[in-house]
C-alpha cells in the first residue's frame, strides 16, 4: 500500500476503533497441566508442514503417528508452493475434528507481513455470507484462505458426519495460523451445532479491529507466541491491524502466561515485550513450543 493510504487507513482505524472486548483480568501463568494440554495441538500444527501424501496416510513420523496415534485422516491437499499444505481428520481421543494449515519459514512470513502491496480488504461475501463489511483482513492472508476454503468445509462436514464428534479444532503456525484464524470466522458461518476452538502459533496480525473483535467472540481462539518472536507484532497496529483476545506468551524463563485483552501492552505479553523488530528475534518463530518445533 502507498504510504499516504497507510496513514489514512491508520487514522480512519483509530477514529472508528470499537471498544476492546478485554476483560479486566490479571496476567496469569499456566499450570504444567494446562501447558501439556496444548501439546497434541502443537504436534498437529507442526504436521501441517508435512506432505499431503504423508498426512493422508498419517505416516509422517514423530509429529503424526508418533505424537498423535489416534488420528483418522479424512482429506489432505495443497502443493506447498502456490497452495499451502492442509489436512483434515478426527482425533478420537480428543473427540475433535482437526483442521491444520501449513505455515512458512520466518523469511517468507516476514516478506508477506511487510510487503506494501498488501492491504486491508473485505472478505468475499460468497464465502462469508452476512459478515459485516466493516470487517477487513490482510489481502494476502484472505486470498490464501480462499484457495482452500470450500475443500476444507467439505472435508470438515464429512469428518463430522462420519465420526459423530461435536467439536472442530483449527490449528496452524505462522501463515498457517493466519489462515486458521480466518477459518475460525468462516467455518461457523456454514456449520452449526458444534463447538469450535482455534489454537495457533506465531500468529501475525491478520485483520482490523472489527475482525479482531469478531474473532474474539466466545474466546475460542488461543494464539501462542514464543519469547521474542517478531512475527506477532507485524503488521503494525499503526497500519490498522489488531490481534484477537487469547494470547499466551512464552517467557524467556519458559513460563506460559495468559494475556487478557487484545494486544496487551504489558511487558509480559508480546506487544509490550517486543516493542519493535530490532528488539525481537525471528529465530524464536519456529519454537520450540513446549519442546515442539514447527516443521515436519
Ligand atoms: C493487560 O493485562 C492487564 C493485567 O495485568 C490488564 O489489567 C489490562 O487491562 C490488560 N490490557 C489490555 C489492553 O487488555
UniProtKB/TrEMBL annotation:
<keyword id="KW-0732">Signal</keyword>
<dbReference type="InterPro" id="IPR051218">
    <property type="entry name" value="Sec_MonoDiacylglyc_Lipase"/>
</dbReference>
<keyword id="KW-1015">Disulfide bond</keyword>
<dbReference type="InterPro" id="IPR029058">
    <property type="entry name" value="AB_hydrolase_fold"/>
</dbReference>
<comment type="similarity">
    <text>Belongs to the AB hydrolase superfamily. Lipase family. Class 3 subfamily.</text>
</comment>
<dbReference type="GO" id="GO:0006629">
    <property type="term" value="P:lipid metabolic process"/>
</dbReference>
<dbReference type="Pfam" id="PF01764">
    <property type="entry name" value="Lipase_3"/>
</dbReference>
<dbReference type="InterPro" id="IPR002921">
    <property type="entry name" value="Fungal_lipase-type"/>
</dbReference>
<feature type="signal peptide">
    <location>
        <begin position="1"/>
        <end position="17"/>
    </location>
</feature>
<feature type="domain" description="Fungal lipase-type">
    <location>
        <begin position="99"/>
        <end position="237"/>
    </location>
</feature>
<protein>
    <submittedName>
        <fullName>Lipase</fullName>
    </submittedName>
</protein>
